[in-house]
Design goal:
Elements (H helix, E strand, L loop, with lengths): L2 H14 L1 H37 L5 E6 L21 H7 L5 E16 L2 E10 L2 H5 L4 E4 L13 E4 L1 H7 L9 E4 L2 E9 L4 E2 L2 E2 L3 E5 H8 L6 E6 L2 H18 L6 E5 H23 L1 H20 L1 H9 L4 H37 L9 H27 L3 H5 L3
Parallel strand pairs: 3-10, 5-7
Antiparallel strand pairs: 1-11, 1-12, 2-3, 2-6, 2-11, 4-7, 5-10, 6-7, 8-9
Amino acid sequence: MLPADLFRQALLAIKSQPLRAGLIVLAMSIGVASVSILVALGESARLYIVHEFESLGTHLVIVLPGRNETTGGQPPIFGETPRDMTLGDAEALAVSPHIAAIAPLMIGSAPVSVHGLERETNIFGSTQALLRVRHLSMAQGSFLPKIDSDQALSVCVIGQTIRKELFPNQQAVGQWLRVNDRRFRVIGVLASEGESIGVDFDEMVIIPVASAQALFDTESLFRILAETKSEQAMHKAVDEVRAIIKARHEGEDDVTIITQDSVVSTFDKILTALTLTVASIAAISLAVAGVLVMNVMLVSVTQRTAEIGLLKALGATRGQLHALFLTEAALLSLAGATVGALLGQLALAGLQVIYPAFPFELPPWALFAALGIALLNGLTFGFLPARKAAKLNPIAALAKR
């Protein structure tokens, strides 16, 4: 029996039992579609998180007040209080040869009003370096001027939402805006940035850091953002930042330093593991489909006993009968895997339409892995029926016993 004969005979067997074939294809397609969709969701979530952290800046180092202990978590609420970070600390870090830019950061909430229109929003206090460190872009006007960090100016930069709500149908740049009891002239409007890691720059008002200290009556900084000159310089900068802060804080190592690549790497590992776990759970449906293949093929062997007996009487060997039934199982598995892959792609396309901001993407390796596992599954579970068919006695088979 030639390979072409095996293929033709398997197709004839599939056509003779369309309901049986349809059930196998349906079960296999559901399994492959489930694996494809869940892997795509996990991979898309990983890419989304990585992109969000990468959008924070390039080679970013974040310095937070307070030291995380080895047990994890923030410093205790009660008891010893961590030393505040100040503008002096930020200026001291700027002398490091590994750091390209330093942006001290203060954050507070205050009412913002213009001509009777008022809303509560977040106020950022920083310097011109924030534009570079956070990769912000301007839609109108200019960003904060390049001045000494301890110099207060009554100027501000606003986000798109603030512009639309407080300056409807008018030019915002050049207008006065009141924050609490202080007035600031709008000198620029940020391009729409959207929300990134919980920070929405569209609803932000950015003022000089010294002005923010006076507004909120505090010298304590919320964060210090530092952009290093290269990825290699990042780790050297971390050690130098820690040494500088320790020297300024009377020998106390009382800050937490987070690097952008460490956060991205951690999330990448977590979400990759989660994706593989979810895909493994979804692969159970492929195992269920394989059991269905085996059961249906066993029924097929029983129904085709006379045909098997005739083939053996004509000289078909055990190996050829093995190949015949395994070819049938492989064709059904490949058909189901192909339909499942198409269904998965259609489902992802539909989700992309519903959630356009989320990047739904199925990695090629996952698609080929699902197809390969489906084929292997069909062959594995098709082996027992093929073995049973090959062991039939030709005389008993012809007599349908």
